Amino acid sequence: MAHIHPTAIVEPGARLGAGVSVGAFSTIGPEVELGDGVTVAGHVTIAGRTRIGARCHIHPFASLGQPPQHLGHKGEATALSIGSDTIIREHVTMNTGTVEGGGETRVGSHCFFMAGIHVAHDCRIGDRVIMANHATLGGHVTIADDVVVGGLSAIHQYVRIGRLAMIGGMSGVVMDVIPFALAAGSRARLAGLNVVGLKRRGMTEPDIAALRTAYRLVFEGEGRLGSSRAKVGWASVSTRRRRRPATTPRWPSWWGSSATCRSAACSIRAGGKVPSPRLGIVAGSGDLPRRLVAACQAQGRAVFVLAIEGQCDAEDFTAVPHDQVRLGAPGRAMRLLHDAGVVEVVLAGRVRRPSLAALRPDWRLLRFLAGQGGRLGSDDRLVKAVVQAIEEDGFKVVGAGDILGELVATAGQLGRHAPTASDAQDLAHGLHIARAIGGLDIGHAVVVQHGIVLGVEGAEGTDGLSRRRRAGQDREGRAGCAGGSPGGRRRDS
Fold first, then answer.
1. Which residues are catalytic?
2. Taking Cα atoms as reference points, which of 376, 419, 408 lies closest to residue 489?
3. Is the pTM higher than 0.70?
4. Is the pLDDT of residue 398 over 50?
5. Closest of 339, 345, 341, 304 to residue 321, by C-alpha
6. Could you give the domains of the chain?
7. Which residues contact 294 (CB under 8 A, 6 or more apart)?
8. What is the spatial distance between Cα 321 and Cα 303, in angstroms, rounded to a whole number?
C-alpha cells in the first residue's frame, strides 16, 4: 500500500507500486509510473511519461520528466525511464527525450546522482554510473556501465563515454572517451587507465598490464592511429552517420560494450586475434532467439537482444543485455543497437504483421514506407527492404545459420527414404514452379505429386501450406515439396 502525504498531489492515472512513499508537497503526474518501494521525498516534481524502477530514492526538489530543453520540441509525447535501485539527490533534473532522438531518455539501475546533476534529452546512461555534484550532460550523450563523472564536469552533446572510464572533476568533455580510461582537463584529454576502477571490478594484474600495453601502442606510440590499432589486431569499424565531426574515431564496439572487461587484453595476449563483434538479435516469437543467445554464450560472444513488443517476452532474455521496442519504432531500434555497440544483426523468430493503424509508425518508419510506395508489400519484399535499411545504417545483417550451423541442411539425402526417379521429376518440376512464384513475390514452396501441383504457398506461409494440404488430403501416394528463390537458393525436402 502506498503512503502519500496529505499535502502531496498524485494526479489521476498515475500508477504507484506497493510500498511507495510520496512526501509533502510533491507532485506526481498522470502518466507517471513508480515501481515497488520507491521513496519520493518532499517538494519533488515527477511529470510526463516517466517510469521509475523499484526501490529508487528521490530526494527533495528533484525535477524528473519535464519536457526537453530543445527548440525543436513541439510538445510530442516522449518519455523518461529510470532503472531500479537508483539514488537521485537534491535538485537533480532529468528531461524526457525528443522525437528526433528516439523519444526516450534512459537511465540504468544502481546509479547515484548527487546534488544538482542535469541529464538532458535522449541521454543513454548505463548501470552503476556515479555522477558527482553539478555535473551536466548535453543531449544525446551515451554513458556506458560503471562510469564515474567528477563534480562540475560538462559533457558535450552526442559524446560517448566508454565502460569503466572516469572523468575528472571540472572537466569539459567534447570528444568520445575510450573505455577503462581516465580523462580530465578544461578540454578533457586522456590521462592513462582507470586502474583503481579496473581493480574494483575484478580485473587481474596480467589483464591490466595487457591493457596498458594496448593503451601505449595506440595513444603513446608514433605514427597514425590506424597503424597503431593494427599493431594490436583491432579491425577497422566504419563510422556510422551521425552529427559529429568527421575526425572523431569510432572505437571498436567490442572493446567498450563486451560483457567482459578483458576483450582488449585478450586481443594482445592472443597475438592480435580479434573477438567476434557483438551480435544484435532482433527477437520475434518462437524458440530461435533463445537458441541464438545460448549459442553466443557458449561461444563467449557478446550479444544484445532487442525484443519486439507483443511478439516475444523480454523476460526470456534477462541473462543478457536486452531492451524492448515497438514494431513501429525502427528509429529507436537503430539507436538502441548502436548504443549497445552492435556490429552484426540477425533477425530471428516469427513476427505477426499488424495493420498500419496498429503500427503507430515513427518518423523512420514513415520514411521507410514512403520509399516502399506507402505499402508493406509481401513478406519477401518486406524482409529484403528491412535488411537493406539495417545495412544502410551501418550494420551487417547475418543469417541465423551463420551462428547456429545445425540450422542449415546439408546437401543430399537426409532421411531414410531416397527419392525415386518419379520423385526426382516432381522435385525438379516443383523447384521450377517455386522459383517462378518466388520471382512474382507470391511464395517459395509448392507441393507436387506425379507432375500435378497440389498446393502453392501464399500469405499463410510454408506451415500454412502444409496444414492446408493435410486438411484436404485426397490423393494417395508420395508427394514432394520444393522451395526456392529467384536467386537460386534452394530449400528442398
1. 121-122, 139
2. 408
3. no
4. yes
5. 304
6. 3-200 (2.160.10.10), 208-269 (no CATH), 279-406 (3.40.50.20), 409-492 (3.40.140.80)
7. none
8. 7
